[in-house]
Amino acid sequence: MKRPTIADIARRAGVSKGAVSYALNGQPGVSEATRQRIVAIAQEIGFNPNSAARALSGASARAVGLTLCRPARMLGIEPFFMGLISGFEAELAARSYALTLQVVATPELEVEVYRRWWGERRIDGVIVTDLRENDVRIPVLQQLQLPAVVIGGPGDTGRITQVWSDDAGAVTETVRYLVALGHRRIARVSGLPDLLHTQTRTKAFSAVCASLGLNEAVTVPSDYTGEEGGRATRRLLIGNDRPTAIIYDNDVMAVAGLAVAQEMGLAVPGDLSIVAWDDSPLCSLVHPPLTALSRDIAEYGAHAARELLAAIDGKQVGNVEAGTAHLTPRGSTAPPR
Amino acid sequence: MKRPTIADIARRAGVSKGAVSYALNGQPGVSEATRQRIVAIAQEIGFNPNSAARALSGASARAVGLTLCRPARMLGIEPFFMGLISGFEAELAARSYALTLQVVATPELEVEVYRRWWGERRIDGVIVTDLRENDVRIPVLQQLQLPAVVIGGPGDTGRITQVWSDDAGAVTETVRYLVALGHRRIARVSGLPDLLHTQTRTKAFSAVCASLGLNEAVTVPSDYTGEEGGRATRRLLIGNDRPTAIIYDNDVMAVAGLAVAQEMGLAVPGDLSIVAWDDSPLCSLVHPPLTALSRDIAEYGAHAARELLAAIDGKQVGNVEAGTAHLTPRGSTAPPR
DNA sequence: AGAATTCACTGAACCGGATAAGTTGTGGAG
DNA sequence: CTCCACAACTTATCCGGTTCAGTGAATTCT
User: Fold this and answer.
1) Nucleotide nearest to A119 (CA to C1')
2) Is the CB of B24 under 7 A from strand C?
3) CA-CA distance, A112 to A180, in Å (whole number)?
4) Percent helix, strand and coil across chain A, each rounded to 5?
5) Contact (CB<8Å) B282/A280
6) Which H or E element spans position B294?
7) For residues B313 and B88, what is the distance between their CA atoms, to the nearest angstrom?
8) Is B45 within 7 A of strand C by CB distance?
9) Distance (Å) from the alpha carbon of A208 to chain B's nearest alpha carbon
10) What percent of chain B has pLDDT over 90?
11) Calpha distance A162→A156 (Å, rounded)
12) Which strands sit side by side in the sheet containing B245-248, from one edge to the other?
């Protein structure tokens, strides 16, 4: 089946290619009558502009890129990214931008992908997740002058827009809540330690615990998987003065931690209170349902997408706080026995 | 920063654009010495062919499309799609194809997306998931002659390649296993009833139950969400002759079912055995860990991607069975008390 | 009324590759 | 020694849009 082009429309309308282009793009240079005639013909024959031709003649590719840098087994389980993606999509689809996805193993490969996409002119901008300390991706993006939005800060990203959520505030709120319930021995099982938002949370956790005089507050590093989360929990619970409450950096580890506690004969929340970061249906499914730090991840993603589209349009660099988590108490937290 | 083009390479190598094109694409028409010189220069200046220019001059777009047709809240929780995507990616990245993703609400909108992608020449082929009965997407794909691979059959897809897993066999195996344990009242909580593979499973379930003389075998339709799965479970368990075993069409509903059973004071597996379809880390996290129908979803996706690339290259239409699920017994199944 | 401006449109160049057709230069066959 | 075949290029055209520099006619201004 032959795809219609503007030349086909031009022939049928008895005008030139240029006129058709002006008409379809709402540019001045054609009369209103002619424009309507042309638009009608385009509608009728089901015309869609060839994205390659458009991109080639200087216009944008109308696509943005997203790389996911996690091993496959971790991607499958984390509801976070899917939430983020559907948030992006909502915003991108509305302005008919396509989303190009690539799964990579390391940040170095991620940089390669950015370079290739840029060289191929395949995308107009990228969304960067999982910001790290001295992130290798930032200088490359600046060098390529590739519009970008970084999620996972706040961090030092120079002239690149950031969208982040107030993790420090959320940690503080959570610890205060647990202390108010009567907990004194609070532990935290963190996500990957090299991610900047993990470090933010860890620092805030230490700070608030110190300020409240909790000396035994520890953060055990983990990697977001249920396996590691369970293992970390087991290590925390075999000690003599085991914590009476644990905060987990994601829902999957929290669910795993719950299973470990139950397997060790500890009652939740009687013997151990559990708080999960990033609420997901998962948290309300298990028994008892988990107290969680909820945030609207899709809206967080939509926000990032809007900022990226603004950056592509050459708007100003921003530094936006969005989607701050708030505590949703459920059955997994109570005063310690 | 200016992107290098073949004209830049040509100038530096002292040859014509055409020669550079031949050299970089391994076409005959240049000497080996010249080719190496050109390739070296391309390497040195970090050349990547402009994908738009390439696509415009008749070559392929080097991209494939995937539409996900589920409400956002369902996407987030289902590990299945992420597994599938990382499987696609592995295969696509190896042949440097990009993956373009779009989240849509209905199959009708999905068709619109296909038409637009095709019109824009944005993609070379699509992967179609969640095949339905009399699926509206199939005739459109055939009309557009857009290379495609369908996942979720087997069904009537005409000249479009299918990749499917033997769900009927897996159901049969599972029911036989439960009957061997001594169960006679087995129920099933299914996924969305209009999906073809749900129907396949339902038919197979009825058939095997009938052949084994289980008269009380029922399938309760649900929608893959934990909420609905829990509700369906509750309905099944309040009856007088409640089932002693339930098979769930995905892991999320199974976990929800487990929570409902525990909340109702039923012991798992003592009072109720549970089997989950599609193993995920989730299944081993909960307590007791869930017996599951495991399959290598990433490999399933990789298989589909390979078939799609073959279809794009004009290879023959296939009908491949891949990634059949096998039963992984864990703590959630036992003889009924 | 004649010049200036505006309008509605045309023609052609351009983006960066792929590729068909044409042009050399070289070596071997006759 | 000439002719031919072939390798090794060059040149030109094409893909389908966007955009800029005209162009002729109508309208406005003086």
Assistant:
1) C16
2) yes
3) 49
4) 45, 15, 35
5) no
6) strand B291-294
7) 17
8) no
9) 31
10) 39
11) 9
12) B218-221, B186-190, B245-248, B273-277, B291-294, B326-328
Of B56, B78, B287, the CB nearest to A259: B287
The residue count of chain B comes to: 337
CA distance A98 to A173: 38
Q: Please indicate whether, in this complex, the C-beta atoms of A282 and B226 are within 8 angstroms of each other.
A: yes
Q: Residue B64 in contact with residue B123, Cβ under 8 Å? A: yes
Burial letters A222-238, b for 16+ CB under 10 A, else e: bbbbbbbbbbbbeebbe
What the block records as the tokens of A317 is: 């660099």
Residue showing tokens 């992908």: A113
Contact B299, B323 (CB under 8 A): yes
**Peptide bond before A269: cis, by omega within 30 degrees of 0?**
yes
A22 touches strand D (CB under 7 A): yes
pTM of the shown model: 0.87
Q: Which token pair is A335? A: 């005063």
Q: What angle do CA A187, A285, B106 make, to 5 degrees?
A: 125
A56 and B50 in contact (C-beta within 8 Å)? yes
Residuewise pLDDT in 10s, chain A (337 residues): 678 899 999 998 889 998 999 999 888 888 888 899 999 999 998 898 888 898 888 778 889 999 988 765 566 667 788 888 888 888 998 888 999 998 888 888 899 899 988 888 889 999 999 888 888 899 999 888 889 999 987 888 878 899 988 999 999 999 999 999 999 999 999 998 988 989 999 999 999 999 998 887 889 999 888 889 999 999 999 988 899 999 999 888 999 999 899 888 898 888 999 999 988 878 888 888 999 999 888 889 999 999 999 988 877 777 888 878 889 999 899 898 8
Structure tokens at A202: 């860890």
CA gap B86, B92 in Å, rounded: 10
β pairing state of A98-104 and A245-248: unpaired
Residues 6+ apart with CB under 8 A from A41: A9, A12, A13, A47
Which residues contact residue A68 at a Cβ distance below 8 angstroms, ignoring those fewer than 6 apart? A75, A81, A101, A102, A103, A104, A129
Q: Do B72 and A52 make contact, defined as CB atoms within 8 angstroms?
A: no
